């Protein structure tokens, strides 16, 4: 019986205990207060993300304006063509 008890201990190679992380540890969940209660890194990260999103939205807006201008030009060409057919 002692041999089987020792063998059972040696074959168990992993731990079932969940590691606990303190506030501020790497990988620890962020506090529920959001970016306003975070440290400087959290605030900087949020600011960079906001800037990135704003730049992407401005790029999309510029593309949409370009497409609208192209469509407006095409409509003007169609109107001149229709006017030419009516004469």
Topology diagram in text:
Layout: H1 2-11, H2 40-86
What characteristic shape results from the CA principal axes? Answer: rod-shaped
Average pLDDT metric:
79
Gap between N and C termini, in Å? 109 Å
- Strand share of the residues? under 5%
Q: Report the sheet with the most strands, covering strand number, pairing sense and barrel closure.
A: none
Number of strands: 0
What is the element string, with H for helices and E for strands? HH
Summarize, please.
With 87 residues, this protein is mostly helical.
Explain how this protein is built.
It is a single chain. This protein is mostly helical. The protein is built from 2 helices and no strands. The longest helix is centred in the last third of the chain and has 47 residues, at 40-86. The radius of gyration is 32 Å and the shape is rod-shaped.
List keywords for this structure.
87 residues, single chain, 2 helices, 66% helix, mainly alpha, rod-shaped
